[in-house]
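Consortium newsletter contribution from the modelling node. Members have asked for a concrete example of what our holo predictions look like. Here is one, prepared for the magnesium ion complex that several groups have been discussing at recent meetings.
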Amino acid sequence: MKDSIKIRVKDLTLIFGKRKKEALRLLTKGVSKTEILKKTGCTIGVDRATFDIKDGEVFVVMGLSGSGKSTLLRCLNRLIEPTAGEVFVNDDNITKKNNKELLEIRRSGMSMVFQNFGLFPHRTILSNIGFGLEIKGVDKKERLIKAQEAIETVGLQGFGEQYPNQLSGGMQQRVGLARALANNPEVLLMDEAFSALDPLIRSDMQDELLDLQKKLQKTIVFITHDLDEAIKMGDRIAIMKDGKIEQIGTAEEIITNPQSEYVEAFVEKVDRKTIITAETLMFKKYVTCLYAKDGPKGVLRKMREASVEVLPVIDENHKFKGFIWLNDVLSTQEEGKTSIMDTVKEEVPKVFPDCTVEEMMPLTTATKSPIAVIHPETGRLLGIISQVSIMIEATRFDKKEIIDLKKQSKEQ
Ligand SMILES: Nc1ncnc2c1ncn2[C@@H]1O[C@H](COP(=O)(O)OP(=O)(O)O)[C@@H](O)[C@H]1O
Ligand SMILES: [Mg+2]
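And here is the predicted structure:
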């Protein structure tokens, strides 16, 4: 994913019904969706959505049925005309385009993948895939080459001459995906594309799309009503309710910091330990580090200042060396040694920032040591995680309960 912004949506609003102006006026006054429907007969499809999507990002829009996901998506390429607000793609104002320009954008810039596949039953797979190119006026030879490429991209080589009904649901959806990819669009709009598939096939398709995305680096707007799918697919997730975007963030951000009761209820059942990572859990600001060159006196002083009995040791490049324990420093001092290096425990648990709580759980039973979070390439110390914080996260007990449990197990 790049840092540049691909799609910028500003105050996008879509109202269904005849008295749009009146409904829009009420909406901006803060009147509810239900109330507006009663008063004007208009349905609020999308309510002042504002967000940016980054280049190469998988941006998931998630919400219950009727929350406005499909409407929002269709406003992006103006399959539905927005009532108010603006959509920019590459800083180009889509809302200001004429019909001809719009057609071009839909054909080349943004391709759509639908839930019901939308394949033509009487056309072969290859011809279905080439359809978008055909209406663009691409000649037959080039069409075939591009369609053949796309068929290989989705792993359906050998099926080109078959017809849609000869293929399973999962394969048909791959054809849908290949058709969208054949146009080589910058943006893929996927509306519940996997929702009709059996769970196992669905999971395979998710994996395949993620794999493909690593190579293709498209900007994907992916719609789903399924939270697990949202978490798996999304670089970021936007949660919609009643046409409004309630919250946008990474799965981890949303789960650790839900900004409304609605979102909190939505994410309550998520298995947090598979999502929360070392990066979120680690202390970094308050970590006192020792340098390998420090002597026992300096170490004791730093431990006293930080009121801890264990500290991380780093070298001059901030590369993590290990942990050092108070008791060991005291013995070193008694023995009259001036270097702490022999005393540093190097065989300690180390993880990378993206390691999940679930993956760290086995480390908590093996040792009492804190866990060092290190940079995957440089080995620099990024932060440390106490065993207690992993146990709290894994069990969702509160801190006091854990400390009591620990005491009990010590006493036994
Ligand atoms: N063509 C339409 N005419 C009137 N209301 C519509 C139309 N399409 C959708 N709606 C309403 O707009 C809201 C959002 O619908 P939709 O975008 O289809 O939600 P989702 O895709 O999240 O299930 C719902 O209240 C729905 O009933
Ligand atoms: Mg929908």
